[in-house]
Batch of 2 targets.
Target 1
Amino acid sequence: MTTSLEPIDFSAPVYGIPQAEKERELLLALNALTRFHAKHCPPYARLLSSLGQGHSIAEKIVDVPFLPVELFKSHNIASVETSEVKINMTSSGTTGAVSKIAVDGDTALLQSKGLTATMVSILGQARRPMLIADTPEVVRDPRLLTARGAGVLGMMRYGRNHVFALNPDLTANHDAIAAFARANSGQPSMIFGFTFMAWTALIDAVGNAQYDLSGATLVHSGGWKKLQDRAVSNEVFRETMRVRHGITDIYNFYGMVEQMGTLHLEGPNGLLSPPRFSDIIIRDPRTLLPVEDGTPGIIQTLSLIPRSYPGHSLLTGDLGVIEAVDTGLDGRMGKVFRVLGRLPKAELRGCSDVYAIPNKKAA
Amino acid sequence: MALGFWLRPAAIAEQERSFEANTSSKLVATPRGLAFHLPPTNVETIFIYSLALSMLCGNVNICRLPSQLSETTRILLKHFVEALVGGDVDGMCLFVTYDLQTNVTAELSKLSDLRIIWGGDAKVQSISTLPQKPRGVTVGFPDRYSYSVLNAATYGLLDEKARNALASAAYNDIFLFDQMGCSSTQVQYWVGKKEQVTPLARDFTARISIAAASKGYEMGMAGAATKLTQAMGQVLDGPVGLLDTTDMILIGVHHEQPRDLRDSRGGAGMVGIIHLNSVMELAELVQERDQTLATFGFDVETLHELAIKINGRGIDRMVPIGQALQFDRIWDGQDLLRSFSRLVTIS
């Protein structure tokens, strides 16, 4: 049982803690998680021991051992018995391979609490009427949840009177959107969708229609790749939403299925903040050593939430940069960062076509 | 650079001399006719070797290039073509490019007396099913796997300078072609006492990393994360004593016992380190796919004995460390000048 670990204090302010204090707090809990996973996941213990870190305790959070997130695509790594796994979450893979994440009841609960702590910071305690920028199909069968489906389902808890903006064939459900806009005119409501789906549902699919969604807080995630290909930046996204539907309260967030429940939410300056129970580190792509703040590199994410699998310290496939620390802007302390896109895939030459990997440049 | 050296006039004359030494007045080598070349999609310099050999044999050549050429290949082809213009073999080589979805490969195959396919098992097998001329032959270069073997005691006796020189040679075997060549070293077998091997192999890994850094080896952005993932995957799959990652240039994965790693290639700087008590134990581990064995610290008699013990089940070449990627006209177990020629006998 993963409940032998210390509870996480989700009642504490999500962003109000200075970096140094946060690192002290996280370090103890991260070390406990490393020990916990080493005890309950023998392959993970083997990994630590091969790295010469079998018994060591990290003295700084940069020394907490990390696993490349890709490892969860090639291997099933869990710290609980198969019988305890409540749900196997999968990432929405674009390249074929998908992550398989074993989540037990305890971790599922922490995911939900982590998400709540973060969402409450922007939505408040009361549930709001919710428009989902997706089709109802995406949450049809909870046992076959994709990352997109799990994201939508997880977020639906923070709303009520749910309305889906898209029909199953991805055309706009104009009647539903119009009814939602009418019913909530000038009142707090929320809209959630993956960034690309939010654009599809609220801009592409509606044609020239304009709806008054000025009371809505729009929360979206999933990356800019598809929209950048169409020259839609975060700024264009915000401006278009404002002009078309009067939406001004917009939050992008960065997160991944391998650390579900840990949302790095956009602040008023457009920069992302790791919540209190997590942090990020930027590493040099070539040496994997930590870089100075302000230097771009690979994003490593730390989170106290993963207990049923050793995912508390992950090297992601994304590039990012830490823009500032302890700004205090909008009450936000700690690191604030920006995601710069995907790490370009390895382009390796050779005399065998089998290893020919197309070179995908990060946008 | 190596290609230029290999193609210089003196080297070509030497090829000619050694080839003719094996023929006689009763054996005349003539061209096969039309040679159709299919280089790997991600063209690297390797296909120029087989193309040059085919030209030396007097064949007329058609070479399919991919629609997008790398800068290196473009420059190489430019020099190659310029060297041909006005010479004896001017007009003997046609470079073409076409959509692979069309039937051009099938049509050119029908006309070919000789077909040369680079690009791995799947490509060799699928193109080989297309008919050639009735007497046409195909020379395929399928997936291969290569490794090295070192004598730990001999390495232990080397001084600093000699160790660095060997590391510099091993750098070529590992890092050229980003370790993705058929002949690129993937595993180092260390022969000696088990307790000796780990420190010596670590010492060697560190020196190869330094050689790579000093030669300005540039790994792609995702290189370190990709090979770390691959290396950690190997740890999850089986007993590994040590993951030597130091600076991420060359990762040494110290396996506890011999293990088949043929389907887990890291690329761009990852070697398996495996201890053996005797070099003859290699004979048990060799498989059909294996091509090049780069060696250090074993005499010719020992390697001869090893070759006999392997008995053709794999390994086409044994070369000193540093020469794994040096192309030779005897490649993948056959004399290409012979394979690309039609031999006429007179008796």
Note: The CA atoms of residues 165 and 177 of chain A lie 6 Å apart.
Target 2
Amino acid sequence: MSWWVQLIACGIAAASFSVLLREPRNTIPVSSLVSIVGYSVFLLLGQSTLAYFLASLLIGLSCELAARLMKRAATLFVTGAIVPLVPGVGLYRTMRFVVDGEYSLAVQTGAATLLGICGIAMAITISSVIFSSFWHPNRKKRGASC
Amino acid sequence: MDSITTTLDAVCLASQLILENGGETYRAEETVERMCQGLGIPRVDVMALPTGLMLTLTLEEDNTLTRLVRVHSRSIDLNRIDECNNISRKVASGNMTADEALKALRRIKQPRKEKRFLLIAASAVTAASFTVMLGGGWTDFGVSFFCGALVQWVLTPLGKMKIPPLISSMIAGALTTLLALLGTLIVDSVNIEPVISGAIMPLLPGLATTNAMRDTIRGDLVSGGARLGEAILSVMMLAAGIGLTLSMWGGGLR
């Protein structure tokens, strides 16, 4: 499959996953678009742990920004947009190696998968902190921190 | 001025809805605080957990009201969270009374007519697109589409039968793997790795993990830890389902 088919598939997957999470209708295109951008960055950076982190950071920041602009909770955007980065292949390979008795390979793959997940989690956390600490459009209202 | 019970009811219901439908714990707490501010309650102490909610309204020096709400079932419905947010925003800015808010919240709480077909279709498309994204071909697309549809079709009744979510995630993992393996029997060219990895993507607890991180970073250590534990367990159960099926298939099921 060529890369553009993969990117389109990524967008469709993110959008339909958002439907599965019962997202409100007008946030779905945003999640889908952000996920495409994030996934292409991830592919360009070579699918390393750092790529997980940087791509998720990009996704997290754009979702937080979108949340502020559209006055909605950031969770609505992030959850759908981040899914394509979740290392499902790593999980599958780890289990495959465990079943085949290749324990050293299983540990290797498992550790890489875990690092990827940690990278994503850190990035989401950092982007959320950046916005809630430095972005106060209206300091009086505590409701500003969505 | 609304009666104080209405206020308490509305506030409790709002944060209960948020906890039940996959919102973060800090959001449930903030909603209570903001709504109380808007309704003119001088002081409120609230403590939300993924499994319950406690709050005390202090009206005067010796006049306090406390309520405990237990949250039993947790599912994901981001639309409801969004609606609760809108209501709490309106109440906080003083554009809505407690009575109106309570009525609106009750309307949100009512079970909706779920379009089951839509959910099954969404699950199928998600699984199939992820398979293509991970490098699968068109036959893999077909198999994965079928996997996603069937898993969602099975998961809904399991949820209604009150099967614990951890068990149903194991069943889902096992089912996906079994279907993909059966697919290889029917069509030779099926590449099993993208099919299974793609089909389990919608089953991974992404929302629980991000919520856990967001809760932890805001200092809700108890909720963050609990949610993280839930997410890790659910991934492990999913992996166990996959591993079990793979090893049984390798060990003579074929």
Note: Chain A touches chain B through 50 residues (CB under 8 Å).
